[in-house]
Design brief:
single chain, 271 residues, alpha+beta, L-fuculose-1-phosphate Aldolase, 2 domains, 9-stranded mixed sheet, 10 helices
Amino acid sequence: MKNILEAPFVEEMKKITANMYRQGWDERNGGNISYMLDEKDVAEYLDLNNVIRTIPSGFDATELTGRIFIVTGTGKYFKNVQDDPENNLGIIRVAKDGTTMELLWGYSDGGRFTSELPAHLMSHMARLSVDPENRIIMHCHPTYTLAMNYVHELDEKKLTHTLWETCTECMVVFPDGIGVLPWMLCGTNEIGEATAEKMKEFRLVVWGLHGIYGAGKDIDEAFGLIETVEKAAQLYMISAHLPRINTISDKELQIIAEGFGVKYRKDFLDL
């Protein structure tokens, strides 16, 4: 059996959590990541018959029975993952009853997965129904994106359009736009259900006055989506109070989308 601490998926989680913490997106124990793994890859590092303990999730994820995820822990700081992954991360499998998680590795201090796990599992199910390649759900609190929530209308079309016209790459990176939810209490099934419904249509969902959810086929894609939104939000926040002399027009946004061959939300443009 290979050393689990050298597994590529553990290394990926170590690197991305450290990077997100350095970006200032995951202060204290803010933010969480779940990464769906291939059973055959995990079997190279763990005995899949050895269940350390079971943890109730409070949510029926029968649709994901048998699926394995590496997930950040509740109350854990992203800055500590790199030095102590076994305590701050866990590898879990959805048990046959759908509501129980089987711990295969991690949470070594007796901890458990993030309190947002139901929201993650709901979003995984939603994204898999749209794109079976989606494996990552990532939640964080990007500074400028969050600041923009307080000064810009929390409207999907208007927020998406503002970001699109602020940075040329936005139309190429998230042509499907951004879903938006009003402020809701985090850690509840209610916000998880609302996020999952949005995830059927968008890979990015803003939690009003809280943060953002991103989905992707791998860590780079999910991170890159959020990173691009954050860059555009930063440009907006440092220029919004100044007279707007130039901007990317809707016609130019259409040219970008068609030039790069991306399927975009035509209803988010005024042509």
